[in-house]
Amino acid sequence: MAFKRGVTATLLLWSALSQAQDLDAQLTAFFAQRLAGFSDEVSVQVRTPDNMRPSCETPEFSAPGNTKLWGNVSVRAQCGNEKRFIQVAVQATGDYVVASRSIPRGAALQPGSVTLKRGRLDQLPPRAILDINQVQNAVTLRDLVPGQPLQLSMLRQSWRIKAGQRVMVIASGDGFSVNGEGQALNNAAVAQNARVRMTSGQVVSGTVDTDGNILINL
């Protein structure tokens, strides 16, 4: 009898371990697909206790659109009408942007100013930049040191127009377009909003395009 109880306990333990490993593997595959293009090496560790995990073998996973890509993440697991939230730790490895040399505050970043480095994305500071094209011609807001991961808060886009500059305002609507000249009242980068005082004295606002024109949709 004691032998049978021991075998039963061993089988139950093996089954629990097998299910836990299956859940880890399923979640790793889920996050590997979710992180495609960011990371090519993903590992997931489930933090939720066994008794709080989904009861079926192949639950459907989903994550809200604003959920973090890595680090400590909550995932919804659904088995039919049963919904449970699983806490997981997601490790992801990939490329991110770092300064390749010392860069003073106010400098415009050039191709040689930055480089890609491979490492743990889940250990990076918030809003770290992964796409090197995103920083070209951006201006630094602080001094940077070699090897420092770049964050969005460290940069701003270079100004396409500056306050006091003469600009062309293009107002367009259904079947018509009107052009006029004015003076920019603020600095603005491409795709940002700019306020312009027209020659009539009227102040209008619109979006800066790549040519430095101010576009207004009526």
Present the secondary structure layout.
Elements: H1 2-34, E1 41-46, E2 60-62, E3 71-79, E4 82-99, E5 114-120, E6 139-140, E7 155-156, E8 166-173, E9 176-184, E10 193-198, E11 203-208, E12 214-217
Parallel strand pairs: 8-12
Antiparallel strand pairs: 1-4, 2-3, 3-4, 4-5, 6-7, 8-9, 9-10, 10-11, 11-12
Order of helices and strands: HEEEEEEEEEEEE
Rg from alpha-carbon coordinates: 27 Å
Q: How many separate helices?
A: 1
Helical residue percent?
A: 10-25%
Main sheet record: 5 strands, antiparallel
Function: Involved in the assembly process of the P-ring formation. It may associate with FlgF on the rod constituting a structure essential for the P-ring assembly or may act as a modulator protein for the P-ring assembly.
Main location: periplasm
Keywords: Bacterial flagellum biogenesis, Cell projection, Cilium, Flagellum, Periplasm, Signal
InterPro entries: Flagellar_FlgA (IPR039246), FlgA_N (IPR041231), SAF (IPR013974), SAF_FlgA (IPR017585)
Short description:
Residues 1-20 form the signal peptide. The chain is α+β, with helices and mostly antiparallel strands.
Descriptive notes:
The protein is built from 1 helix and 12 strands. The protein has 3 domains: 13-91, no CATH class; 93-156, Type Iii Antifreeze Protein Isoform Hplc 12 (Alpha-Beta Complex), CATH 3.90.1210; 166-217, SH3 type barrels. 21% of the residues are buried. With 218 residues, it is an alpha+beta fold. The strands form 3 sheets. Strands 1, 2, 3, 4 and 5 form a 5-stranded antiparallel beta sheet that branches. Strands 8-9-10-11-12 form a 5-stranded mixed β-barrel. It has a two-stranded antiparallel sheet with strand order 6-7. The radius of gyration is 27 Å and the shape is elongated.
